[in-house]
Write the structure tokens for this entry.
Amino acid sequence: MSTMLTLAAEFLDRMTNPSYGPAINEDYSLRFAVLMSAENSDKSLDEEIGLLENVNTLGPYVWLWIINRARSRDIILSEDLLLHLTGRWPDVFIQAPVIDLATRNAEWSSPENVVSIKSFGHPWLSRLLQQCTGYRNDVADRSMFTLSRRAELSLISLLQVGKGITLDAASTLLNHSWEGRSHLVEFFWYRWDQLDEETQVIWQSRLHPPNRDAGNRR
Amino acid sequence: MIGARIEQAVRNVITGYANSLLEKLVTKSGAYAIKFVQSKWADHYSSVNPLRISDTPALTWGTATYVTPLAYPLSSALYGRIGLVTDFDPINWRIFDATRPSAQSVYVQWARSQPMYADLLLTVHSTDANHFLRNQFRQLFKIDCVLFHPDQEAEEYTKSVDHVWMAVTDWAPSGAIQSGFSQRLSKARFTVLIDEDFQLEDHGLPIRTAPRQIERITERMQRNAPTHPVQVSHARNDPRMPLLISQVYHGNGYLHVFIEP
């Protein structure tokens, strides 16, 4: 990791991690903003952020801050890094902004037919879909629940971002044949049940989900 | 991806500045906002500087600059002794007035229709999920300013039912919500000094109503044993101070050493 970010890592954590409390977060944020007001500081930081590669060097809240900074300042982050972030912290509140960032400049027209996750037209999203439905050596528990959990989080994140391209990716994921499919489909319909009727119709017509029968009761 | 009825309901409650509660407050007290900060920032803001955009997840309406219209000048004294005042230009702002129950209701409807809604209720990450949703809502509907009633109070300074605070959005060129320093509230200067101090937390929880820590005591003491305040520049050099303080001590009073204007 770069020198500036190495030095700043703990500072950034106090600035962003809610466990320190709002008062500490706010205080460090203001101190950081004042430090960054020096000439070229922002530019240097943005350049160093663009060089980041290893997800394990910073905590999740610092990453979230970096993702938001990259979104607002058009900083380009490594595609591998973004994918690893979704694997390391698949929670929706992290994964959704990462997906939003990874697809921010995508030009997209929806495919006419359902495609496989491998041939999905956006390479990064294709990798995400393969990652969240793929076999994991690091998971000892091979139950269907564990298998489908990552796909569920990715599905919700794709839906939450709500762009045409991410909705198409969500539809592709729902229709993909894999060992966790029935649980994912069942999960989808549970979430669908919680919606108002009008939004239910939109979800169904936009996502073309498999029938409920494709999911098995847990 | 929400029903048209919910989307339209949200759009119906978003108003231009001219038809907003903010316009009434500005007409009454001017296009000025005030924000209280800790004493250590007095020097930085002794000259004009921009306010910082808050991006702490725990804040009420997401990443924004949190200020109070000058119509409620001491309402946010909870957060520090130093009152920073800045002007602003709200003419083209889109306002979401969350002081109105109808606006609160449509936000809740919108949130309930979101794919991640269950994460607010079923996971340990509800604060973060809320933060994400609030930002997405404001970005999606291009809301420049949310008006809301205070959800934290300083005793006697804040009236949560009547007072109105603002969360002001700065936009990045990409249309994302900006962080860093605010360009919309950029001329802040140390303008008010408050003689009180509040606790922000109650055993680790953000405080709901913070009692006055000084005034409640001094009121009582002053009633029982009135004493005159002393300017700090006099107090520092006055050889009679030890005697004065010992007299006040034996009289069960207190001596207010104040910073003169």
Chain A touches chain B through 47 residues (CB under 8 Å). Chain A has eleven helices and no strands. The mean pLDDT of chain A is 88. Chain A has two domains: 1-77, 81-218.
